[in-house]
Amino acid sequence: MTNLNGVVTPPSTPSPNLLQMNMAREREKYLEEYNFPFCEAATKFEKLAKIGQGTFGEVFKARDKKNHKKLVAMKKILMENEKEGFPITALREIRILQLLKHDNVVNLLEICQTRANQFNRYRSTFYLVFEFCEHDLAGLLSNTKVKFSLGEIKQVIQQMLNGLYYIHSNKILHRDMKAANVLITKSGTLKLADFGLARAFSAQKNGQPNRYTNRVVTLWYRPPELLLGDRNYGPPVDLWGAGCIMAEMWTRSPIMQGNSEQQQLTLISQLCGSITPEVWPKVESLDLYNQLELVKGQKRKVKERLKPYVRDPMGCDLLDKLLVLDPAKRFDADSALNHDFFWTDPMPCDLSKMLSQQTQSNFEYLAPRRLNNHQSSAMRPASAVASQGSSTSATSGFHERVF
Ligand SMILES: Nc1ncnc2c1ncn2[C@@H]1O[C@H](COP(=O)(O)OP(=O)(O)OP(=O)(O)O)[C@@H](O)[C@H]1O
Ligand SMILES: [Mg+2]
């Protein structure tokens, strides 16, 4: 710039501080005004109660302000530790839920957000909005007033297997099967929920084994192949969890409550027999086979130990075929659905009449007996525990053992 005397003077530049402040203000304005596409304001819902405290955020029951009859569950996406924007785990959950549309899979309705403003330090909160289901199976099982007849148990397990058959046919693994992730509506429809750890799977490519993380599935529902470090696993991991949940329909609490990976494997061997190459060919090739202590000389006692609870021979037989050590020999969802258990009297029967006696929701989070569970690391998948920086062995939680 030249002044009247022909002397060149630099343009007046704001101080670095002022520049930074301006940039920050610009950013705030941008964030305040930014409209995320396909993402409505969370204020359209009125929160009614907190119904879940998951590893990755809170879950609320809410209703649509414009349509009071429309109830939803809002799952908050935890953004606290995010430096890179929207968390990849939530994106994966959304993509998978968008793909899956089935009566026995929870229905994702939309994503909504709170607006960024100075009160939330210009950070929006995002929610996954689901159709509301009145109960979860962990809540129902911990309520002693809820009694399932054999036909009703068959209906629950059949729907769970239908859901698994559907997701596996769509090449999705759930990887966190447990009673708290199985929802049931008041009309008796079961929905698999919590796809936070789910992933797509494929057959091995060019003969190369898959290398998926084995730090998945809540410890008490974790199959032996994951405990032994397998990274080339598939749908059988979910069928093991289905077997544990099926047994829980009678025992009313998780059947193997280990407090470390080592103890979980011991409990599995005490029920399903010793892990040896005779019953499980190629088990020696799994990474941790030689590193963990495997109990020897244990007989398989699945039927014998579950009979006093289950009392139905068909039920015991199906459990025996789900809780199989070798994943290659474990029943898949299709074989399980074809088992005589579902095709002999009493046939699977409607749950709505029994559930109509429940005037209040049953959720694990609200159940007194399980109140401490969400603090126990055994109740969370290893990957979630690791991301919180604690050890993978449980130190608290429930130690009331069935066996
Ligand atoms: N659509 C829904 N209707 C009713 N309740 C729900 C719904 N979705 C989730 N919940 C409740 O909230 C709980 C936690 O939800 P979800 O399992 O999806 O979250 P999470 O953070 O992944 O949990 P966790 O880490 O404990 O497995 C469920 O166990 C269930 O009780
Ligand atoms: Mg969950």
Question: What do these coordinates show?
Answer:
Pfam families: Pkinase (PF00069). Its main location: nucleus. The chain is α+β, with helices and mostly antiparallel strands and 403 residues long. It folds into two domains: 35-131, Phosphorylase Kinase, domain 1; 135-357, Orthogonal Bundle (Transferase(Phosphotransferase), domain 1), CATH 1.10.510.10. Helices cover 30% and strands 13% of the residues. The protein contains twelve helices and eleven strands. It has helices spanning 16-33, 88-99, 137-142, 150-169, 224-227, 236-251, 261-272, 302-310, 313-322, 333-337, 352-355, 382-387, and strands at 39-41, 45-54, 57-64, 71-76, 108-113, 126-131, 135-136, 172-173, 182-184, 190-192, 199-200. Strand 3 (57-64) and strand 4 (71-76) form a beta hairpin. Helix 6 packs antiparallel against helix 9 (313-322) and helix 8 packs across helix 9. It starts with 15 loop residues before the first helix and ends in a 16-residue tail after the last helix. Adenosine-5'-triphosphate binds at residues 51-52, 54-57, 59, 73, 75, 106, 130-133, 136, 176, 180-181, 183, 193-194, 196, 363-365, 374, 380.
Structural class: alpha+beta
CATH domain class name of the largest domain = Mainly Alpha
Q: Helix coverage percent of residues?
A: 25-40%
Q: What general form does the structure show?
A: globular
Poorly predicted parts: 370-377, 385-403
Number of helices: 12
